[in-house]
Amino acid sequence: MPQAVPPGWIQTDHALTRTVQRSDFVDALAFTVELGGLAENADHHPDIAIRGYRSVEISLSTHSAGNRVTEKDFALAQQINGLSEDAIRLTHNDLRRRFSA
Prior knowledge:
CATH topology: Gyrase A, domain 2
Radius of gyration: 14 Å
Low-confidence stretches: none
Number of strands: 4
Order of helices and strands: EEHEEHH
Structural class: alpha+beta
CATH class: Alpha Beta
Distance between the termini: 52 Å
CATH superfamily: Transcriptional coactivator/pterin dehydratase
């Protein structure tokens, strides 16, 4: 039975994709850092790009499966959707402090 595409994501033949708008560049970086933690823990690494200083473009596909969408992609997309705004805010604040030093 086919998986339901998580809210906010688009499925093509070769990837699940999503663009997330953040408030500014540091917030986009903070979101990306938190997303990176999820990806590293899942040992499943997406393509990520920050465009226009606050748009985070995410593309999920399973490289070992011939760049197709698999259960791993759906699972990571769901985890990304569930990222905590509180955790992102803490990372954002930490980055602001680090960049101001």
